[in-house]
């Protein structure tokens, strides 16, 4: 799957978002090491803090379909999803909470993930590694000094 295909999958997923409060639709596409593709979209809620991000949605699906340790590549795209196509010219990056969830998956996979961060219209793409997005991240290995529960 090409970068363009992965980004298009994220853009398509964003059109399935439920974003009546912010009006900002985000989609995430995750490709496994064997070529299986899953997607997710943000789902807002009138009680704002109960919403779910596209990345969390896609990670949950990835865990169910092939396991977090099998994640190979990720793309996110966001913008105005109120029409037939996703629009917007600013690239979107995962929020802090999603960066932490992606970090956990990268530790399980044993590799740093490249994340394609795309604009709504897909014309602007930033290639960022997870270690760039969350340097000095706190993950499973950080708990090595904890007492067994």
Would you kindly provide a written description of the structure presented here, covering whatever features stand out?
The chain has a single domain, classed as Cytidine Deaminase, domain 2, CATH 3.40.140. 28% of the residues lie in helices and 22% in strands. It contains four helices and five strands. A five-stranded mixed sheet has the order 2-1-3-4-5. A hairpin with a 5-residue loop joins strand 4 and strand 5. 38% of the residues are buried. The mean pLDDT is 95.
Task: Compile the SSE list and pairings.
Blueprint: H1 3-14, E1 25-32, E2 37-41, H2 54-65, E3 71-79, H3 96-109, E4 114-119, E5 125-129, H4 130-133
Parallel strand pairs: 3-4
Antiparallel strand pairs: 1-2, 1-3, 4-5
Quickly list its features.
149 residues, alpha+beta, 5-stranded mixed β-sheet, 5 strands, globular
Shape: globular
Strand content: 15-25%
Give the helix/strand class: alpha+beta
Question: What is the CATH superfamily label?
Answer: Cytidine Deaminase, domain 2
DSSP summary: helix tally: 4
Oligomer: single chain
- Briefly note the CATH topology name: Cytidine Deaminase, domain 2
Assigned CATH class: Alpha Beta
Helix content: 25-40%
- Computed CA radius of gyration, to the nearest angstrom: 15 Å
Task: Write a brief structural summary.
The protein has helices at 3-14, 54-65, 96-109, 130-133, and strands at 25-32, 37-41, 71-79, 114-119, 125-129. It has 149 residues and is of the alpha+beta class. Strands 2-1-3-4-5 form a five-stranded mixed beta sheet.
């Amino acid at each position: 799957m090409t970068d363009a295909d992965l980004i298009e999958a994220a853009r398509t997923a964003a059109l399935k978002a439920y974003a009546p409060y912010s009006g900002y639709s985000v989609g995430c596409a995750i490709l496994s090491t064997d070529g299986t593709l899953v997607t997710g979209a943000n789902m807002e809620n009138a009680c704002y803090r109960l919403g779910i991000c596209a990345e969390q949605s896609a990670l949950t699906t990835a865990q169910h379909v092939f396991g977090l340790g099998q994640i190979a590549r990720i793309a996110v795209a966001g913008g105005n999803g109120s029409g037939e196509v996703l629009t917007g010219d600013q690239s979107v990056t995962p929020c802090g909470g999603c960066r932490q969830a992606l970090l956990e998956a990268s530790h399980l996979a044993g590799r740093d993930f490249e994340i394609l961060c795309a604009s709504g219209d897909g014309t602007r793409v930033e290639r960022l590694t997870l270690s760039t997005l969350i340097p000095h991240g706190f993950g499973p290995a950080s708990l090595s000094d904890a007492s067994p529960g």
